[in-house]
Amino acid sequence: MKKKWQSYSDNGFKVPDAYFDTFASHLKDRQQLQALNGSKNEGFQIPSDYFKTIELRIKEHTKTSKVITLWWSDPRAITASLTAIAAVLVLLLLLWNPTTPQTNFESISSTSLNDYFEERDIQEFLTYEELAKIEENTSIFESISLTDEVIFDMIDNQVLNDDLEQFPVK
Amino acid sequence: MSSKKTLLQEQFDALVNDYKERLYWHIRRMVISHDDADDVLQNTFIKVFKNLENFKGESKLYTWLYRIATNESLTFLKKKARRLHINDEQLQQHLTSNLKSDPYFDGDALQIKLQNAINSLPQRQKQVFLLKYYDEMPYSEISAILETSEGSLKASYHHAVKKITKYVTEN
């Protein structure tokens, strides 16, 4: 006769096929595994007094270690970095102006150069040797075209007349 | 292997053979799922094997086995509740709420209702009811397993039957 405890399977509860037939074998596998896990000699070793001193070593470490704040986690560092970048950009914009004309000697007219040399007595600042050197090594003066107008202007110049007066034509 | 160990292993094998099914159903009624029952049953027998040498025969062998199986089941359920972050009452509801999707349960609505009724009982009343009703154990043996007086067990069983009947008829 079927016992009442066996009737539980009639209440809808089932077990996998051949569960009770294979149970003893599964149990043996688990026992062997547990025996291996329960073995006291696993091969791992630790230094002597390791667990006695670990607490002290952790405390020492936490006392001497400084907390280093990563710059990207510090809001003040982020603000400073952004300000520096903005300042550099503003400076670059101020220095670089594409509308500013590029000045070179070629673009200066010969009249302007003459005016410049007339207004300033360049000989006061440079020796004759220096002037001669500049004349030799630069093409600035080559670009000055001595037109008739320029020559007449020079003759009309009072200074030249004064010089000629000192050396009268015989 | 020494002859003493061999003898112990033979005794153990015989014991597993004799009690595996009976203890399985006792555990299954408490933990509900087959996988959990299988786990607890194996743990029970491993504990039995470790302590078999020290068993002095002061209590009946099967009373001793039942006590180990009951304690293993209760420990398992406590761990499960802790793992799921729920209390004992919520765990009982959780156990039966999964019955419909359990591949090893094919009971109908009435059987699910009966399980809900049994699992709505306080833990002690539930254990007394299961041992008395399904295992047909005398109160004296239940008393040895649960370590409670027979008078208290009788009262617990009486309350349990009333609550189950009420639950099944009202729901």
How much strand of chain B? under 5%
What is the overall silhouette of chain A? Answer: rod-shaped
Low-confidence stretches of chain B: none
Share of residues in strands of chain A: under 5%
Number of helices of chain A: 7
Alpha-carbon Rg of chain A, integer: 52 Å
Describe the structure.
The complex is a heterodimer of chains A (about 170) and B (about 170). Chain A is built from 7 helices and no strands. Chain A has helices at about 20-35, 50-65, 75-95, 110-120, 130-135, 150-155, 160-165. The N and C termini of chain A lie far apart (about 165 Å). Helix content of chain B is about 80%, strand content about 0%. In chain B, helix 1 (about 5-30) runs antiparallel to helix 2 (about 35-50) and helix 1 packs across helix 3. Classes of the chains: A mainly alpha (about 170), B mainly alpha (about 170).
List keywords for this structure.
heterodimer, A: 170 residues, mainly alpha, 7 helices, 0% strand, B: 171 residues, 8 helices, 78% helix, globular
